[in-house]
């Protein structure tokens, strides 16, 4: 199992998308093996590829890794996106866990029933603009540096950029009151590996559409 990492998931963002972002940030080429049917998932489960019977699964360095946080931690450590010492790593972890909390809200928006969508969007906007974004705006203001931790590009920057762009897909002016986050978004988007990943035709996945939900439900349920 050498060569490029191989990502096993459906052809959608979900819990694999951050892993795609981190590999792209590190400049690592990867292959994708898409689950198209329930049978594809069942085959992986039956051949022992999935430790806990679920995807995402990434084949990397002779391992078949599962659990999205464990995979992301491994990639961030391997490709030097995880700070220079234990304290920086702790700070990155705190930021990342908060980003994941917001990301989970954003990911589930498309799955909301029609009569709940408006309230769900209001919850996203409230938590983003009152709980999460003010913290990152203050971090950038207080240390006056280009990156969130140690003035060095890390997974925290990658995952915040991913989530900022997802938030803007839900509400285009959601960053209006956060000038430093707007600058951060532009700056990180222009890092060569990130710029490449944000171009059309990359392995970045588009937002999930409601018409795609039935196909996903058939694979996973």
TrEMBL record:
It holds the Pfam family GST_N. Residues 85-208 form the GST C-terminal domain. GO terms for biological process: glutathione metabolic process; xenobiotic metabolic process. Keywords: Transferase. Gene3D superfamilies: 1.20.1050.10, Glutaredoxin. InterPro entries: Glutathione-S-Trfase_C-like, Glutathione-S-Trfase_C_sf, Glutathione_S-Trfase, Glutathione_S-Trfase_N, GST_alpha, GST_C, GST_superfamily, Thioredoxin-like_sf. GO terms for molecular function: glutathione transferase activity. Residues 3-83 form the GST N-terminal domain. The keyword S-adenosyl-L-methionine does not apply. Its EC number is 2.5.1.18. PROSITE patterns: GST_CTER, GST_NTER. The keyword Transferase applies. Belongs to the GST superfamily. Alpha family. This is glutathione transferase.
